[in-house]
Structure formats: structure tokens, C-alpha cells
Amino acid sequence: MAAGRSLTNGREGISISEVEATGKAGNPNLCNPVPESGPLTLAEVLLALQETQEQRERRIGNLFNFFDTSRSGFVDHSQIVEAFRALSIPSQYKYAKDLLDVCDANHDGRVDYGEFRKYMDDKELELYHIFREIDV
């Protein structure tokens, strides 16, 4: 990573009592306490990640701030390229442009926190759905 930039996840986990409060703990046959049918919710993703809503907010905010080095509240193409470099991800124009195009819902050439958050919500639900489907 580039000097002066850090990415922290802020994960502290959730307590057993929080899991038990969902009514799903205590079943020895249940390795993943998330229902296997019906639409997924972010609450189910949080449970699987053992993360509270506050921890998730902090993690996503930290990630957004990692990209938003100017602290302008927006991320543009050059900031995406720079963040990719800091993460040792090939900073080819296409990758940064693809991420910008996917996140930039209002097509103003930059991504605000709300757009970034919506992208993260959608991606985490999509990834968890895939993992749930292959979990046997």
C-alpha cells in the first residue's frame, strides 16, 4: 500500500447472545444460520459476516475514504486508479472506468458515498447469494 494510506475493517464480531437473539443458534446441524430460501437481506449477510450494522458502516466508510483521498465526498476516475495502484491492482484504464461506470448511478462522472454504498450493498448480496448456493 502507498505510504499514509490504510484500510481497516473495524470488525469486532458479534456476541453469542446477538446470534441467539435471531432464534437460529443452538442447532448443531446448522453450519450457516441463514435461511436457504427466499430473498436475501443485508441482515442475513451481517449475520454470516458476524458483523454489526455499525461495523459494516465503518468498514464501507473506511473503504470509501480509501478511494476519496481529497475528502471531497466524491471519487473520480483518477482516485480509483490511484487506489488500485495502492492495492497493487493493475490500474489499467478499463478497470477503473468499469468501476466508475457501475457505481456512478447519476452519470456525473464521479461516485458519491450513496452511490458507493448502493454498489457495496448489491455486491455483498450478490456474493453472499453465490456462496449460499455453493454451500453444501
Measure the end-to-end span. Answer: 36 Å
Number of helices: 6
Order of helices and strands: HHHEHHEH
- On the 0-100 scale, what is the average pLDDT? 77
Specify the oligomeric state.
Answer: single chain
Number of strands: 2
Helix content: 40-55%
General description of the model:
By secondary structure, the chain is an all-alpha fold. The protein is 52% helix and 3% strand. The chain contains six helices and two strands. It has helices at residues 16-20, 42-49, 53-67, 77-86, 93-103, 113-134, and strands at 74-75, 111-112. A two-stranded antiparallel sheet has the order 1-2. Helix 4 packs across helix 5 (93-103). The longest helix is centred in the C-terminal third of the chain and has 22 residues, at 113-134. The chain starts with 15 loop residues before the first helix and ends with a helix.
